[in-house]
């Protein structure tokens, strides 16, 4: 294994509050496959990488208090610019002192640009869009029985609120203003998300649109940083699209990698089996001394693959969402705790888990809460699921530092996917 190396460390904390030197990234242990450990420095604390970032879409990880997120090992929280723009409004959060102060979270925060939600909700898909190719191409994707709520043009996106039907407009400049008002330590450039069913021609057009939007985001970000000198520096990450086309992915990485971004988000549609390949493509083109965030993954096999090939941080709503629907993680796989066989099972969700839920509550009790429709169920199962995924990535990080990444991968995945629960 190559010797550890690092990029320059940030300047001392005596720098002005909005000084860019307050954000930085140090690289630690490296894997020959491209993976690495490291530390992201932000004005509100460090993030040891690789790291899973719990999602608090509307300034809350659903059903869990911020102090509980910290107790289960969460180092940072990611919120959604689209949702917070619509409710309660980014100006209100700015007045409250920023996202962290508003939600009583003292650590680092991230916000996405809202591009995914504008497209997915605009096309009537609510939470998710299938990333599996149907074999049919369609540049005007819309959910069955739904009306299109958003329209993209070269300047931005016009969309109808899913809350009250009012019309709104996002441009790169508006997205930057909204995210500056939200005040996250890391924010993402406004991009257009495509799907696997879009034609190659549209993918090319969209990629160029996202490139031009990236330039506008940087310009507006720099202007707002200078204007809002009373606020801590916010890092700006560019977002790489290109679907599953190697030439487009590499072009996006080269184009944005040459821009003045603090880091990069790897986004867009892809099939699960191509995850590591696509990450490898873009990481071969990106500057290695800047962090890379992979948007929207949380399954154990995906995490190992993403970490092996060079992604540093990850986020996904899945651990908390599936928890509310009775799906829980264990070292022996994910299972549904509402099953009848758990009615008199007084063991914890995972006997080897040390989280608050597993230390204090049985499967029988949790099943009872679910059947009784008690709110406590969501809290306890979300704590466990987030702790499981956050803890797994922390375990991977330690294994990388100890030189046993492949050994841990074989142990964890061999057991997890045996489905013995």
Give a verbal description of the structure:
There is one protein chain. The chain is α/β, with parallel strands linked by helices. The protein folds into two domains: 24-316, Queuine tRNA-ribosyltransferase-like (TIM Barrel); 321-421, no CATH class. Helix content is 39%, strand content 16%. It has 15 helices and 16 strands. The strands form four sheets. An eight-stranded parallel β-sheet has the order 4-14-13-12-11-10-6-5. Helix 9 links the parallel strand 12 (263-266) and strand 13 (292-295). The longest helix is centred in the middle third of the chain and has 28 residues, at 200-227. The two termini are 36 Å apart.
Task: Kindly report the spatial arrangement of strands forming the biggest sheet.
Answer: 4-14-13-12-11-10-6-5
CATH superfamily of the largest domain, please? Queuine tRNA-ribosyltransferase-like
CATH topology of the largest domain: TIM Barrel
- Arithmetic mean of pLDDT: 90
In short:
The protein has 421 residues and is of the alpha/beta class.
Helix and strand layout, with pairings?
Blueprint: E1 24-30, E2 36-42, E3 45-49, E4 51-54, H1 66-71, E5 77-80, H2 81-86, H3 90-95, H4 99-103, E6 109-112, H5 115-122, E7 150-152, E8 157-160, E9 167-170, H6 172-182, E10 186-188, H7 200-227, E11 235-240, H8 246-257, E12 263-266, H9 275-285, E13 292-295, H10 300-309, E14 313-316, H11 318-324, E15 327-328, E16 335-336, H12 356-360, H13 363-371, H14 376-402, H15 405-416
Helix pairs in contact: 6-7, 7-8, 8-9, 9-10, 11-14, 13-14, 14-15
């Amino acid at each position: 294994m190559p010797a550890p190396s690092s990029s320059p460390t940030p300047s001392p904390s005596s720098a002005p509050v909005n000084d860019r030197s307050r954000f930085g990234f140090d690289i630690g242990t490296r894997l020959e496959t491209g993976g690495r450990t490291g530390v992201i420095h932000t004005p509100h604390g460090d993030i040891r990488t690789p790291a899973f970032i719990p999602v608090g879409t509307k300034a809350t990880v659903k059903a869990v208090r911020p102090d509980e997120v910290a107790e289960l090992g969460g180092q940072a929280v990611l919120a959604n610019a689209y949702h917070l723009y619509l409710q309660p409004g980014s100006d209100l959060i700015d007045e409250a002192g920023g996202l962290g102060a508003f939600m009583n979270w003292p650590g680092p925060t991230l916000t996405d640009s809202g591009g995914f939600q504008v497209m997915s909700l605009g096309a009537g898909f609510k939470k998710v869009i299938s990333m599996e190719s149907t074999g049919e191409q369609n540049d005007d994707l819309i959910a069955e029985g739904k009306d299109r709520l958003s329209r993209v043009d070269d300047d931005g996106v016009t969309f109808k609120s899913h809350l009250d039907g009012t019309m709104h407009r996002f441009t790169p400049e508006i997205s930057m203003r909204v995210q500056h008002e939200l005040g996250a330590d890391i924010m993402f450039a406004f991009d257009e998300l495509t799907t696997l069913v879009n034609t190659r021609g549209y993918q090319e057009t969209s990629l160029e649109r996202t490139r031009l939007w990236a330039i506008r985001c940087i310009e507006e970000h720099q202007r707002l940083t200078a204007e809002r000198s009373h606020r801590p520096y916010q890092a700006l990450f560019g977002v790489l699209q290109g679907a599953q086309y190697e030439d487009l992915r590499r072009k996006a990485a080269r184009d944005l990698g040459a821009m003045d971004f603090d880091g990069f988000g790897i986004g867009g549609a892809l099939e699960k089996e191509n995850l590591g390949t696509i990450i490898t493509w873009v990481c071969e083109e990106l500057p290695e001394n800047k962090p890379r965030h992979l948007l929207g993954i949380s399954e154990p096999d995906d995490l190992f693959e993403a970490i092996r090939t060079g992604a540093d941080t990850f986020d996904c709503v899945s651990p908390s969402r599936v928890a509310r629907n009775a799906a829980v993680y264990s070292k022996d796989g994910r299972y549904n705790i509402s099953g009848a066989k758990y009615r008199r099972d007084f063991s914890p969700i995972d006997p080897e888990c040390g989280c608050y839920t597993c230390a204090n509550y049985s499967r029988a009790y949790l099943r009872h809460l679910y059947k009784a429709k008690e709110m406590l169920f969501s809290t306890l199962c979300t704590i466990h699921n987030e702790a499981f995924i956050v803890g797994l990535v922390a375990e991977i990080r330690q294994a990388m530092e100890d030189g046993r990444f492949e050994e841990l991968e074989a142990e964890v995945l061999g057991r997890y996917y045996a489905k013995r629960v």
